[in-house]
User: Fold this.
Amino acid sequence: MRVEILIFDGFDDLDGLAPLRVLRGAAAQGAPFDVALVTLAPADEVTASSGLRVRPDGVLGERVDVLVVPGGGWATRAPQGAWAEYERGAIPDAIARLHGAGAVVATVCTGGMLAAKAGITSGRPAITHHAAIEDLLASGAEVVSARVVDDGDLVSSGGVTSGIDLALWLIERFAGPEVAVRVESNLEYERRGTVWRGERTRE
Assistant:
């Protein structure tokens, strides 16, 4: 299973790197995940909102099973980050294309607003960082008060640290609860909140 985490200048480092750490931990436990940190266009380095400089593994693929989209910089309307990428439109276009090709789109924090710009949250249950709730509502989403919201091919999570819970839920969903518990134990982390599951997940 190909999992790509799409990063961009101004992304929140914890939004993107926490799921990377958790999902690669699952791969080390035998989960069938091939996890990569990618950019939309070739880049030697990406600078996170904290100033951390990150070297991506490559560029976004044509076929992806799970696409993880972090946020960052939304509330402050930062010149680099999720708000800037929302306005630019290229990343939302890529999200829409991959979602249309069958990828599960999993968002962390205000990465949910990039999915909204891609047109995949309208009329669907979703969650984002509390600072962007009104924006998510305006996109036509049905906001659910849960840490992780799984509606099948759209999985969203709340602010920043919820990306850990999102990644653990993806492990449980695609590799089983035993692997998820092992990864959780290795991290010495206790999952928080509720995973809300929609009808698309139960089918």
User: Anything to note?
Assistant: The chain has a mean pLDDT of 96. The first strand starts at residue 2 and ends at 6.
